[in-house]
Every structure is written in structure tokens, then in C-alpha cells.
Amino acid sequence: MENFTPVTDNWNEQENLEQDTSLCSPSRVLHLRQIPDDATEAEIISLILPFGIVTNILILKGKGQALLEMSSVEAAVNVVSYCNTAVLYLRSQPLCIQYSNYKMLKTDNAPNQARTQAALCALTAVRSGSLLSSSVIVKNGLPPSQGSVLRIVVENVFYPLTLDTLYQIFSVYGSVLKIVMFNKGNKFQALLQYANPMEAYYAKMILDGHSVYVSCCTLRIDFSKLSNLIIKYNNNKSRDFTRFGLPPGDAQPPLEPSVSDASGSKRVVFPPYTGPVVFAQPTGYAQASVSRYAVPGQMSIPGATAFATSSVLLVTNLNPEAITPYGLFILFGMYGNVHRVKIMLNKRDNALVQMADATQAQLAITYLNGQMLYGKVLHATFSKHRRIQLPHEGQDDQGLTKDYLHSPLHRYKRPGSKNFKNIFPPSATLHLSNIPPSVTLDYLKSLFESTGSTVKAFKFLLRDSRMALIQLDSVEEAIHALIALHNRDLGEDHHLRISFSKWTI
Questions:
Q1: Which tops the pLDDT comparison, 303 or 88?
Q2: Which of 64, 100, 173, 394 has CB atoms 3.0–4.6 Å from 29's, for a disulfide?
């Protein structure tokens, strides 16, 4: 077996960011160790995909190791360089990654290779945003004729799940169009429709068998026979994210158990979900929890894991020509209260971001890692530091370290604030609020166009003209506009408030 040199824990935040801990010369093939025994090919691939295309993988069963082939040496160098300054985790387990002695992987005769190729096919397609033809899907071992609707059964429901919780979990893997929740046979179930079958396949591959909270709320996921969900009401039991104007209603009406099939000849009616609706850890529950660090007034999030012990994030692969401490403060402030930001003096494509607590740091990683920011793919993970040091008196760090502890722009200052319920992944649609009556649609459109954005659609909300939705050409444009325009003074003592929306126009 290959020799291994563990990643050093001695790291200076401004120097030695590129210490080489590998004994082998750079290679397309990476050697991964300390992999959890039950980790799947899809999990490992999805962890590495932000650094580049993965072309092959071989898991060494029973050894906690794997060999993973990247599409280029440059992509492999990205992974190893990143792991020299930070740690990648898989199911709370820190991974050790170095170059392999092998220059390429030949796994044609390896068992379960069809499954491996299926994972590579699906994950790479989702990463590139493209769908594969049915002939390619069959050729690579993906199940044919699978639709875009998933059937989700939740076992061991210690904490009841809400529709918003499901949306937050599943929207990480694609564009969620519709969700409906119901009870059947004393089991909590849901149907969830993606924009395309590949996204549904990707989500099933990654999430099936995993628990939303520690030791409870386990997801069992299959493809539904339905081709389309018919949603009549947008409420806490059913929601159509493509139709903003549906009435709230009291429930999805009790339908007979039939839904529209591929031919559209039938419709489904679902019994309403009648169980309690709770998001975040209920007061008094001390054992199984979303996050062991959650306290009243703080955010509790699905998927927060036991390793989230640091509130400081290492953010890499930034565009040094465009990024500023304030820009990172605004962006990461979408997912928690940012206390301090430090851009590295000698390596300005790296930064540290200190959140209020580890739960907020985990949430920021979940939603921002892999996003495009000023033309580069942002990478975010937990830092080995526990806090960001401010410059010493008389030390000139060129304004790269900022303290935002007492900033009035924190979104989560008040316990129980409604802002906790409106946390969504980055999207091309932004929610605007605090608009003064004198500001017109044309003014707001020109304001966003001044940031380089292309406005695709705009809509004032019917019930409140102080709020609106604006849809831009891409998620990256929306991120740039949010950084540039959040808190913009619109006059009349109104400052524009911007957040990501779960709706489309």
C-alpha cells in the first residue's frame, strides 16, 4: 500500500499556505484515506467535484481507502493544495489526501464498476448543468425511464419535518419545483419533484439512507411512478415553487389516491399532513438534535454535524481583484452573523470568515461552497483557527481585516426573528424589501442593471408594495448584485434589504 504523510497541523495563516506534504510527485490519481466504511462512490465524488471533473474511482473496501482519478493533474493539484491548508470531511470524518504513485486508474474488471460509472455520469452531469441523452444513461448503467418525482419516507421521526426543511435539504442537489407532504400508514411521507430526472437521480443517490438529524429522521427515497405533481395550494403541507400566486387554502384537498400518470389521464389527491410542524430543536430535547451547539435563539439546521466545532471558515479560490472584506461580510451574512473577516495579506485569494457560532458556519458551508463568485468557484470549509486575530496596534494590514461584531447589518440579532425562517440557498431570484413608495420598477431595474446584471423578470408583491421579486440571468449575477446593493440608501430613510428567494417569477 502507498506510503502516507499526514497533513500537518502547523499552519501559519499568512505564510506557508502551500507546504507540500506529499511524498509523491503530482498525479491525476489521488490516494484518499480514513474514509468511513459505508461511504459510497457518489459521496466521495460529490465531495471532490468542486475542484474539477472526476473521471474514475476505486474504493478499497475494508481498508478505509480509495483511489480517485481527476481529469487533469491541475485538478488534482487543486485538491492536494487545498488539503494542505484545510480539512475535507466525509460524514464527520477528516480525510487524508495525497498524490498516488499511479498515473491513471484501470478499473474495467473491478466489481461494481457499473455503479461507479453511474455515479460518475450522474454527478458530472449535474455539475455541468447538462442532461445526458437516454442512450448515454443506459450505456453508463443509470436506471432508464426514471422520472423527476421522488417518493420520500421518513423513519424514526423524533423531530417532525417541515416542508421548508425538505426544501433546504433537497434544493442543494437541483431545482425543486414542487413538494407535497402527507401521512400514510402512520408514516410521514412526501413527494418531491425536480426540474429534471438527473437531479432527482443525484439527490436519491446522495441522500437515500441518511438521517436529517443525529440518529433520527432517516430518509428512504425511491422514484415515484408519477410524472407530475398537481399542487392547488401553497401552504405548510404543499407548495408549487413555480406558481407564486396559488391560494394558501387549509390543506391539499383529500384526493383519491390517484395522480397524473405519464399520459396525464389521472390526478393524485393526497391526504393532508396532520402531524405537528416543528423546525429547529424543540426546547427540552437534549439528546438527538440538529446541532449539539444549538441554543434558543440560534439557528438549528438540517445536516449540521458533530465536527462543526469551529466558527471560523477558510474560504479559498477567491478573485483577489474583486473580493473585499465587506463583500464576504454581506455574502456570508446571509447564513449567520459574521463577526470578523480577514483576507490573507500574502495570498489574497484566501480569507478567513468568523461566524457567530459553529452552526452558522456549517450553514454557510452548506450553501456557499461551490458557488461562482466573480468568475471563480468559491471553496469554503472549517478553518483550523478558532478566532480571527485583529491587527496589532500600529500594524498595517492594508485594511484586509475587519471587525463586524457590532454591525447594524446583522440579519439574526433577535432570537425568534422571522429571518431564521427565510434562509435559502443562492438563487437567481432575489427578494427585495424596505422599498419606499416613491421608488419605481424602472428605477430598481436600472439599479440592478448598473451592477452588470441582466434583469429577466420583476414583480412587486401584491400585498405589500414595499417588497418585490427580481429575477436575474444567473445565480452568480444575483450574488454579485446582493453584495453590491444590500443596504443601498433609497432615500426617505429606507435602505434596501436583499435576500435570496425560494420563489421564481
A1: 88
A2: 100
